[in-house]
Amino acid sequence: MTKSSVLGYPRIGEDREWKKALEAFWSGKLEEAEFQARLQEIRLNHLRKQQEKGIDLIPVNDFSYYDHILDTAAMFGIIPKRFSYEGGAVPLSVYYGVARGTKGAAASEMTKWFNTNYHYIVPELTDASPVLTENKPLAAYREAKEKLGIEGKPVIVGPLTFLKLSKGYSASETDTWLERLVPLYVQVLQELAEEGVQWVQIDEPILVTKLSQDDLQRLTKIYETIAAAVPSLNIMLQTYFESVENYTDIVKLPVKGIGLDFVHGYKGNLVAIKTLGFPADKVLGAGVIDGRGIWKASLREKLELLTALTKLVTPDRLIVQSSCSLLHVPVTTARETKLTSELKNALAFADEKLGELVLLTKALASSSESDIDEIIKSEAAIQALQQSEERNRVNIQQAVAALNNQQPERSHPFAERHQAQQAKWQLPIFPTTTIGSFPQSAEVRKARQSWRKGEWNNEQYAQYIRDQIDTWVDLQEEIGLDVLVHGEFERTDMVEFFGEKLAGFAFTQNGWVQSYGSRCVKPPVIFGDVAFTGEMTVEETKYAQSKTSRPVKGMLTGPITIMNWSFVRDDIPREQIAYQLAYALRQEVEALEQAGIGMIQVDEPAVREGLPLKEEEQADYLAWAVKAFRITTCTVHETTQIHTHMCYCEFHDMIDSIEAMDADVISIETSRSHGELIHSFELNTYKLGIGLGVYDIHSPRVPSVEEMTGMIERALRVLDARLFWINPDCGLKTRGLEETVASLRNMVEATKIARENHAATV
Ligand code: GLN
Ligand code: ZN
């Protein structure tokens, strides 16, 4: 009969015990043996939960000591030379060295796992000679069987995806690399087959991206080789995060099952399977429960979908699955005690999703009365939230609907604004500024805690913040910066701060998800219509401005960044959520302007992160992201200068969209992709104000004047000197006081030199 399965379970534990164990081990507080024991306990506990809930095919080897891509590299002995690894099973010290760096060797690069907020360690293939160092999936399978009697489903990242995500080889070496890797995969799989493993899940999420004809042929060859070597093993070729490209080729591959995402790839995959059919001899892994969203599924709709699928594949060839690994959602709603019941009842984190999967699987065969009760209850919970006041703010909905039909535009084109702003501010050439935050010392964090705990009253805390502002306004003047900031001392996090002040947001107590390694984040939940409820940043900004005659930039987080770093409701399109946020933030922009703040920065570091995987959908996303930014910023006077800031990503391929945002000035991170970003300005002329970060803020090192002069001169070769600003790469929140002041002094020094060198030409 139909079976249930998940593609992976969160590693971090209900109480983030995984994170705590890792960090204790790193800091030497936990011996390796004790650490191993603790991790095993966590791992078994997760398996036990799935077993108790009644999941039929439970994944093993989805657990990790840090990251599953790093695990795969380590399994094949692919360790960069600088870590002096000597072969055999990779010791933990080496494994964590690659992930986090050691005294003598920089960590491997880390990058975004497809379009999620999870980051993996990029394997470096340069000089590597892969061998099988240990069969990790086999060990995981044995453990589950021996300890819990579970017939586990080992999960492995597939060869094509692994290779595509790796670096340190050229395109012409692709086949050579596959010839090295595939035999190792075969070896792993043969050992699994010998052990009596039934199902193996091979993850090939790369199949949702566009592949070349060559890659498609490689794909076929890989799976033919594997099928020939282990004909008895049931392989579930698993895809996720989108619909597959090349459906016809993929379903022809010689594997037992094909796993498709019917949530994030719903449309494409459903059309494909309905029009092109599904091979009668294969099993369909139907990913119907959202592995990335936090909401309860409409079980009625899911049951309809599954029933429709049973017209195309027989029920015994259907597996009811999560759309992707549950790694991307928090563990359980059970520990949330502060959410309204309306909200809490509509949420489903990993454990609740297990329940949904089991229920759907049972109900598909035949619904018992209690199943029907469950389904009705769950629908009612979704309905209740749907009908809540928060989701029905008619005034917001109307205001945003009215925006839909407008092209948000500043009253004057940039050239005129630029003149008016110059006349008003009289800034020197190459104005200097910073990105917003100044060091959040232990003292600042302590002050906030005292206030949160109630040991300090509001006034005490406000006074403390004002003192910080005083100190930093003086410092900025003394350093000689032209455009000042208040320093963001009142903010812990640039999204949370605004979420706490806007309506439509909720905060969980325990909704943590892994971002990278032991780092977990607790994204806000946008569950209702977003509304402005009062000024959020005016007081501090106004205060800072009252202390100086130089302009102080107001500082807001942009709509797209707030959205991309939150869990969002799934009953309205993301585009509409972005416009609601934009509409709310616009009111803050207007309030700042009213209060006499003449420069306002709206940060959008996360714009690029939301880019859809499908190329054909990217233009549309960028268009509405740009529109949301413009809605936020378009109503101010021509003399009010709008700034924006971007970082974390490479932006060289989206300069057009950045320009379309029409910000008077952008400050953009440059150090991570130097060459490429500057090169892209050789190809496009950028016509608005721009500051390319002249130093990397991710390290405590104080850059020299010469280094920054070099950066400035390089940028000036391709950018208009009259529009050029000088600033660091990003906010200085994580830096120390001394290095910050020293670096900024050098930056101002480098600016003076640049002004002398270029005075004649501007
Ligand atoms: N204004 C923010 C700061 O300086 C920007 C942070 C960011 O870009 N991530 O901290
Ligand atoms: Zn930044």
TrEMBL record:
Residues 430-752 form the Cobalamin-independent methionine synthase MetE C-terminal/archaeal domain. InterPro entries: Cbl-indep_Met_Synth_N, Cobalamin-indep_Met_synthase, Met_Synth_C/arc, UROD/MetE-like_sf. L-methionine binds at I435, G436, S437, E488, D603. The keyword Transferase applies. The active site is at H698. The keyword S-adenosyl-L-methionine does not apply. PANTHER family: 5-METHYLTETRAHYDROPTEROYLTRIGLUTAMATE--HOMOCYSTEINE METHYLTRANSFERASE. This is 5-methyltetrahydropteroyltriglutamate--homocysteine methyltransferase. It comes from Paenibacillus silvestris. The lineage of its organism: Bacteria, Bacillati, Bacillota, Bacilli, Bacillales. The gene is metE.
